[in-house]
Amino acid sequence: xxxxxxxxxxxxxxxxxLLALAVAIPAGAQSAAASCEKPVxxxxxxxxxxxxxxxxxxLKRQQVHVTFFAAAERTQTEGDSLDNHWAAWWKAxxxxxxxxxxxxxxxxxxxxxxxxxxPSFRVKPSAGALAGxxxxxxxxxYCANIRKASERLELITGxxxxxxxRAPGGKTSPKLLAAARDCGYAHVxxxxxGFLGDELPSEKFSNEKLLTQALxxxxxxxxxxxxxxxxxxxxxxxxxxxxxxxxxxxxxxFCFQTLRQHPDYRAWIASHP
Length: 273
Fold this sequence. Notes:
Blueprint: H1 2-24, E1 39-45, H2 52-62, E2 67-70, H3 84-95, E3 99-102, E4 108-113, E5 120-125, E6 135-138, H4 139-157, E7 164-165, H5 174-182, E8 186-187, H6 207-217, E9 223-227, H7 237-251, E10 255-256, H8 266-271
Parallel strand pairs: 1-2, 1-9, 1-10, 2-3, 7-8
Antiparallel strand pairs: 4-5, 5-6
Helix pairs in contact: 1-7, 2-7, 6-7
């Protein structure tokens, strides 16, 4: 019990120090992309959007650019994350220099490959009119759902999304990834240390624990994953951790880039304008 109490005091002291650094380090202190020697790539998938305004405020204050992967997910505003209610929010992020990719329009989970010469897949959308039902889709149908989110993003932002997508849950197969690449989309996962834990139950994974773990384990080149709101987490991650994480990583010499600058995707993006 005594050691646990000491750990809590050390964590609280560390959090206070990081928040102080948020003021001490100028928001524009990050070097230009060309001199970024320890890059990390912060990405956000859509969610209920309840924390989206806060995320935007923190990113603007810290002058950090990220890549958003968007699906038309159910929101706290009784619509979806790509509807007209959120169009101005997305357009503002484009104006600030953030990048976008598809998360499949209906937040479609891959469930399995079907045997046969022609690629086809068992899928289960978790958003939209088809949510909760399982279907068999051809490669063309799966690609159409990727493309639909990308086209909607371009329509509401005026900015062409990157030729990248993220499968919900990161669930894929080699055949699925090949089908997506054939229609112009490369898949983006995340680093093990880059899983920031905002989907995990807060009863077992406190924000303090998640922040400490991230600052201890994130390495240069890691792709980081968070969400714009998780329905199941009682103690939201972003209000407590997003800014301390950014400030803490900056203090360790890290800099933030979008996936447009990632070495694994630069050539792909250049060849798919």
